Structures are given as structure tokens and as C-alpha cells.
Amino acid sequence: MVGERKPICRTYLMCPPRFFRVEYVINPWMDTTVPVDADLAVKQWERLREILIELGHTVHVLDPDPGLPDMVFAANGAFTVDGVAYGARFRHPQRSAEAAAHRAFYAGQGWPHTEPVEINEGEGDFAYLPGKGMVLAGYGFRTAPPAHAEAAETLSRPVVSLRLTDPRFYHLDTALAAIDDHTVAYYPGAFSAPSQRVLRQLFPDAVLADEADALDFGLNLVSDGRHVLLNSDATALATKLAAAGFTPIPVELSELKKGGGSVKCCIAELRP
User: Whole-model pTM above 0.90?
Assistant: First the structure.
């Protein structure tokens, strides 16, 4: 029997989608011919932020820039461990200026911030498992493999590289999520065969998502160790998480899915 899981109060960074729109295509989900309901996007984002606050978490808010429509996907701006921020360097020029906004935030908070040499997209491609003392890092579409060594050096943590092979899962956080300090949920089909073997060895008790829930951005989730906020369309994964002793909280983010993101894309965790 699974014992009661204990939530951990966390600190997050989010950016409202006040200027969110799909005006270019840099992932398979974006379609400039599909209209975005800007007001609904803001309402859905606000509800996500409210849930985090209701659960006792602290949420910092980054001011959006009207010229950067993807700033709502705040997870991509940096990756933090033990009060150190490893900054982002975006692959696509449409998002490159976001890195400076995140750098300014961390400077204002007094956090050491390392400016990267290598291309990486923050928590989009990095996940931290404190209980295992390791970082999982994705590559194949956005983050360059040499960034994994740069992150290890910056954050003083071992980094395990995982190759993404399906372009629909262009960031690690669309295919894998930490659901507590030791445990992950992931979709095997998003990874190369060798990376699948690594994941099976490291996480024999992982929660496995099926393709349908992965395509519904179910793995683009945020967990405090008990409560798991995930896209409301990922119903089968929610059932699996509940069976594993977690408390799933469905969140409707239909408008932000049009940009190729969901819950986790909107939330950067700040680990002091």
C-alpha cells in the first residue's frame, strides 16, 4: 500500500500570457492559421497560478514583453539548483531575447547566474531529482549535448543525457516529469532505445504514460510530491498517478497548447 505522500512547499516563476500568440512555427504544435483566444489564455493561466498559491506555494511573476509572445513558457528561461541559475541560450532567434529578461530577474533576486556558452532551453530540457542527486537532460531537438557538461560544471551535479527522437516531444518536459524527489513519469516512445534502457535502470518504478496522454501534454506537469497539476485532457495518466498515491489536479490550458506547451512550460521552479 502506498503511504500518504507529503507535499513540499515550492517557489516558482511564471509569466502571464498577456501578449501570447502564435505568429511563427518553431515546433510541430504551432499553426499560425489557428486563432488564439487571448482573453481565455490569460484566464486559464490565472487559474493555474491560483491553484499553486492555494496549495501553499510561492509564485513570482515576470513581466511579459509585447515583442516576445512565448515568454509565458517561463520554464525555458533558466535551470536552478541550490540557489544557482544556469541561464538559457535559445536555439531559435524568435525567443533569444527572453534569456535577458530571466537573467535580470535572477540578478534582482541576488542569485548567481551563469551565462551559457552552449545552446540550452532551461527546464525545458533539464529535470532535477534531489533524492537521487542527479539531473536528467534531454537533447535531440533544442538543447545541444555539450550543454549537459556545462550544466554539470555549473551546478555541481551529475547529468544523465537522454536522447529525444520524436519531434512532437521536442523538449524533455513534454516527455518526462519528476513527480517526487526520486520518481519520474515518462513516455518511452519519445526516447531512443538506449535512453529507454537508461530510464528503466534508473527508475524501475516509474509511472509510464501512453502515447495519447503524452500527446495531450500530460507529462508537461508540475508536482509538489503529492499534488500533480497536469493537463485536463490526460485522463489516463491522472488515473495512473492516483493509483500511485498522488493527487492529480486537472488544469485546462487549451489556448497555450496551441503554442506547444502546458502546465510545466508555464512554470520555472526556483530551488534556493
Answer: yes
Tell me, yes or no, if 171 is annotated catalytic: yes
**Is 265 designated active site?**
yes
Contact 179, 241 (CB under 8 A): yes
Set 15, 102, 227, 265: catalytic member: 265
Q: Fold for 11-270, please state it.
A: L-arginine/glycine Amidinotransferase; Chain A (3.75.10)
Which residue in 57, 102, 113, 171 is the catalytic one?
171
Full pLDDT tens readout for the chain, 272 residues: 456 899 999 999 999 999 999 999 999 999 999 999 999 999 999 999 999 999 999 999 999 999 999 999 999 999 999 999 999 999 999 999 999 999 999 999 999 999 999 999 999 999 999 999 999 999 999 999 999 999 999 999 999 999 999 999 999 999 999 999 999 999 999 999 999 999 999 999 999 999 999 999 999 999 999 999 999 999 999 999 999 999 999 999 999 999 999 999 999 999 99
* The three cell numbers locating residue 263: 502546465
In whole angstroms, what separates CA 226 from the centre of its chain? 17
Residue 160: name the closest of 137, 130, 191 by CA.
Answer: 137
Exposure string of 163-186, with b = 16+ CB inside 10 Å and e = fewer, is: bbebebbbbbbbbbbbbbeebbbb
Please tell me the distance from the alpha carbon of residue 51 to that of residue 132, in angstroms, as a whole number: 28
